User: Which sequence fits this backbone?
């Protein structure tokens, strides 16, 4: 069975600092994708970044990068130069190629301090 | 519309009543997902459709919950004999059946059982 673990229920970070949100996953499938979503207080789910299991390089999207360590089954999200608008819940998710089901972790609530 | 549409946005019902929640996915998206999200938690997988068929319904909590997608587009999540514990945000998402594509979420239906 697949599983996503996010061990940080909440984090406080000073504005303009970089922040790393942890995510570990478990699957026996060799082919899978990893996603990060942001959910602000308004409730919408906003896609941030994707990493495929066969991708050789870490994914980057603007201020977001994914630190993919396949052997450790780790897919941490790094946000550089944090902004007040980054305050939100962040969810790590996984899709396995075998069945396309997407499962989510419990999330990390990020607070950016001015 | 361009995005995933969920109706109603809010539903208040009495304990024991039957409710239907509707999801209209992005046109052309063959995969459709239903999730339930309680306050401060991650989206909990309920059921996933590939076309008209339920590819995985392992997340449905009990037989009071049922979902259909008769023509491979719009889906309806049906809850019989609602209980107060069913109160949550119900999220629908759709995606293309490609490994590296993210799921796009609707705004959700907030169900309150009183």
Assistant:
């Amino acid at each position: 069975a697949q599983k996503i673990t996010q061990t940080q229920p909440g984090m406080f970070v000073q504005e303009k600092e970089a922040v790393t949100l942890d995510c570990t996953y478990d699957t026996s499938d060799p082919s899978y994708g990893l996603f990060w979503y942001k959910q602000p207080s308004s409730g919408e789910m906003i896609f941030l970044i994707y990493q495929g299991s066969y991708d050789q390089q870490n994914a980057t999207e603007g201020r977001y990068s994914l630190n993919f360590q396949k052997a450790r089954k780790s897919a941490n999200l790094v946000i550089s130069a944090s902004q007040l608008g980054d305050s939100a819940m962040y969810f790590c998710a996984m899709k396995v190629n075998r069945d396309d089901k997407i499962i989510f972790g419990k999330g990390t609530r990020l607070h950016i301090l001015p | 519309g361009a995005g995933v549409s969920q109706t109603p946005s809010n539903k208040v019902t009495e304990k024991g009543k039957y409710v239907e929640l509707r999801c209209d996915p992005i046109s052309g998206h063959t995969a459709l997902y239903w999730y339930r999200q309680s306050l401060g938690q991650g989206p909990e997988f309920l059921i996933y459709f590939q076309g008209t068929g339920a590819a995985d319904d392992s997340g449905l909590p009990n037989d009071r919950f049922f979902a259909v997608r008769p023509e491979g587009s719009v889906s309806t999540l049906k809850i019989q004999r609602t209980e107060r514990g069913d109160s949550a945000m119900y999220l629908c998402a759709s995606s293309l059946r490609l490994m590296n594509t993210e799921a796009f979420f609707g705004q959700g239906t907030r169900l309150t059982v009183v």
